[in-house]
Amino acid sequence: MKLGIVGTGNISSRHLDEFQKIENVNIEAVCDTNEQNLNKFLNKYKSNNIRGYSTLEEMLEKEKNFDGISNTTPDKFHKETTLKILEKGYNIFCEKPLAENYQDAREMVQAALRSNKINMVNFTYRESSAYQKLVKIVKSGEIGVPRHVSACYYQSWLASNKWGDWRNDDKWLWRLSTKHGSNGALGDTGVHIFDFTVNAVGDIKKIFADLKTYYDKGDKIKNYVLDANDGFNSLVRFENGAIGTITNTRYATGHANSLILEVFGTKGGLKVELDEERNKWSTLHVCQNENINKMSWETVECSKTPSNYQNFIKSIQINKNIQPDFNQGAKIQKIIDSCIKSNDNNSWIDIN
Q1: What is the pLDDT of residues 84-134, one digit of tens each?
Q2: Are residues 301 and 184 in the same domain?
Q3: For residues 182 and 164, what is the distance between their CA atoms, to the nearest angstrom?
Q4: Phi and psi at residue 46, in whole multiples of 5°?
Q5: Do residues 238 and 225 both lie within one domain?
Q6: What is the pTM of this model?
Q7: Which residues constitute the domain of residue 222?
């Protein structure tokens, strides 16, 4: 199976590595309008004999035998590049968030439906086997009806040097600037925690969000105006009657990259806590049956599950979309847009 990659920034190397772990899958060509990034990528993977192009149009014109294309461009280019790829009739695997706003995301969904091609969004944390087990248990009704949900996405790169000094690195600075296409922590990692929660518990009916930007870190560095949100809190009401909180911050001291989801139902509770090193990706915590009155939690180790990259290839092989697809990506983008509206209006927003 032959794939192409659009964009050769940091995340593109992860896509290449993950896809080439899969038997009989090969990255044939890449493209990027940023000549420096393109050359750096081609030199790094010189032994792979990957063809390089300076524009997507050129790659689509000269490469005729792709089975799919992976879109790793910056967020603001997702719509433009994805529509061109679908118009040429290729299956597509797109980085998150699907688009910069819900209207653009819906256009991408409609284009995918018209093309009748496989379309997926790379919500990375779906790959946790413990999370997938949690989803299965919730949907089975084994812990009863969900009543309360707590979901947190914790990073600390604004308060630590775990990933280097953000003040000196463009790959972090753009995430703090709306002019550079960032919706802040809400758009960058908020999409993950909302997908993480909604996929497990069900659709959100109403939301009240409070976005926060800390200007004491500075107003501007180089040409980056530091005006994007650094974190948020949200109160949510689910369609199934459950309530909960979904939060996200870049100031969570002691957490490099942690996702925590707790779901409490009428017959039990579940918890996953994912860490930076992926040491806990298979660990599910369960409290049910006789353990409910003992306040005792059982730790369950879950068998490894396929990656999003493997599921994309399988989707092409069976010609059927495995989740998460573009429609899910658009649903999450609608929640993101609703958070911004809620913050601006200081009010609850009915998402539907």
Answers
A1: 999 999 999 999 999 999 999 999 999 999 999 999 999 999 999 999 999
A2: yes
A3: 20
A4: -55, -40
A5: yes
A6: 0.95
A7: 125-305+333-350
